[in-house]
Amino acid sequence: VSADSRGLKKPVARIPRDRVPADTVRLARFLLGKVLVREIRGSMSAGRIVETEAYLPNDPACHAYRGMTPRNRSLFLEHGHSYVYLCYGTSYMLNVSSEAAGIGAGVLLRALEPLHGIEQMQRNAGGSKPTHLARGPGRLASALKIDRRHDGLDIFRAEELWIGTDGRKVPKVAQSVRIGITKAADERLRYFIAGSRHLSGSAKLNTPEEASCTPP
DNA sequence: TCGCGGATGAACT
DNA sequence: GTTCATCCGCGAG
After folding, report:
1. Is the CB of A72 within 7 Å of strand B?
2. Which residue's CA is nearest to the C1' of nucleotide B3?
3. A window 158-187: Cβ near strand B (< 7 A)
């Protein structure tokens, strides 16, 4: 149990690197239920990851598809490093690199269930209900004050922004097509905790009939 | 609820 | 000049 977990209802433990999958789809599923922790000058905010998207090697929708550039180089770091970029001039997106060093791929974090520091998140994000606070990748980053300074972090070992576990098991993982992209839009590479009330996307995308459910 | 249009800025071609 | 993995507000149903 990490000393960094003080203040949380359930303690958040660091995850040993050898337990983190070096495979994009496996990592997208592994991250569901884990806790994203943000520490700013001694105060902590945290939320459970309830929705992710996989961006595979050789995937036209992945930013790494056309090779390494100054912006996307973090996607090519060893699995478990952050890739943060500004989208549409307004929203930061937080990804986790997901393959061996040199292979460009990542997992986008799309929604959190706020667990701790909710009032601070509301101040950061302009105040809203917990179910809306970190719903969507842009709001997620806004609520936790994530920006380009958090690009390239070792996301399981960093201090200011890291991912840990409180031991909670995910009852059921569902999947659907990815949201908001124009290339390879038919791939069912969005993963989420079935029944969560903190998901982005239309209600229809989140219904069990549309989203095929698979064991976690 | 749902769908639409505009704001927005950095990277890339 | 084009692209972009978004968000917000608005109006119709």
Report:
1. yes
2. A202
3. none
Nearest in space to A55 (alpha carbons), one of A105, A130, A109, A95: A105
| Proximity of residue A136 CB to strand C below 7 A | yes
Using alpha carbons, select from A130, A152, A154 the residue that is nearest to residue A143.
A130
* CB of A59 nearer than 7 A to strand C: no
Distances from the Cα of A107 to the Cα of A23, A52, A54, A58, angstroms: 10, 6, 5, 14
Per residue in A82-108, pLDDT (tens digit) is: 999 999 999 999 999 999 999 999 999
What pLDDT shows up at residue A9? 72
pLDDT in tens, A127-144: 789 999 999 999 999 999
Residue scoring higher pLDDT (A4 or A113):
A113
Alpha carbons A76 and A97: distance in angstroms, whole number: 7
For A62, the token pair is: 């992945």
pTM for the complete prediction? 0.94
